[in-house]
């Protein structure tokens, strides 16, 4: 996925600066600032990270390092229907990887990406806490249990005309 240069509007710039100011422009509050900015924008593109770095007087590399280290931060917008495949132990041993491969094939995107129409994004997570239903897939708030690779197209079909 090529990076499209995002032009931040003045109102967006002001919002980022305001969030940073609420945390006293304190470098030690970087994670809190990132959470608030992601809440506001839905994701953390490079342009947002650059403003945060400037406001907190730290390097862009440091901000980027934190964003890429923690899996709950996103650098690309999530799809309307974010799909997560659990790759925790129970799900993994019951075939989660084959289910994940089928989602990648059906959507024609790798993990961490969003379909060009913005409908679906694909990610992995460690444990949903529904190990008895392994392998587990979530789409938004909805949980699908005992998913097989053959069931992937059927699940996606539920979202076709939404």
UniProtKB/TrEMBL annotation:
Gene3D superfamilies: Glutaredoxin, NADH-quinone oxidoreductase subunit E. [2Fe-2S] cluster binds at residues 86, 91, 127, 131. CDD domains: TRX_Fd_NuoE. InterPro entries: NADP_DH_HndA-like, NuoE-like, NuoE_dom, NuoE_N, Thioredoxin-like_sf. GO terms for molecular function: 2 iron, 2 sulfur cluster binding; metal ion binding; oxidoreductase activity. It comes from the Bacteria. Its cofactor is [2Fe-2S] cluster. The keyword Transmembrane helix does not apply. Keywords: 2Fe-2S, Iron, Iron-sulfur, Metal-binding. The keyword Metal-binding applies. Binds 1 [2Fe-2S] cluster. NCBIfam families: PRK07539.1-2. Belongs to the complex I 24 kDa subunit family. This is NADP-reducing hydrogenase subunit HndA. It comes from Acetobacteroides hydrogenigenes.
């Amino acid at each position: 996925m090529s990076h499209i240069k995002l032009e931040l509007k003045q109102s967006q710039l002001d919002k980022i600066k305001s969030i940073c100011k609420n945390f006293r422009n304190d470098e030690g509050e970087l994670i809190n600032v990132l959470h608030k900015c992601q809440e506001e924008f839905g994701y953390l593109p490079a342009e947002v990270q650059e403003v945060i770095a400037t406001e907190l007087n730290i390097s862009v590399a440091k901000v980027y390092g934190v964003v890429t280290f923690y899996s709950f931060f996103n650098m690309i917008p999530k799809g309307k229907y974010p799909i997560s495949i659990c790759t925790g132990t129970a799900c993994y041993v019951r075939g989660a990887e084959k289910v994940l491969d089928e989602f990648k094939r059906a959507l024609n995107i790798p993990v961490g990406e969003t379909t060009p129409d913005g409908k679906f994004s694909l990610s992995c997570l460690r444990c949903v806490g529904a190990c008895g239903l392994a392998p587990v897939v979530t789409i938004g708030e909805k949980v699908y249990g005992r998913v097989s690779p053959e069931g992937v197209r059927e699940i996606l079909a539920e979202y076709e005309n939404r």
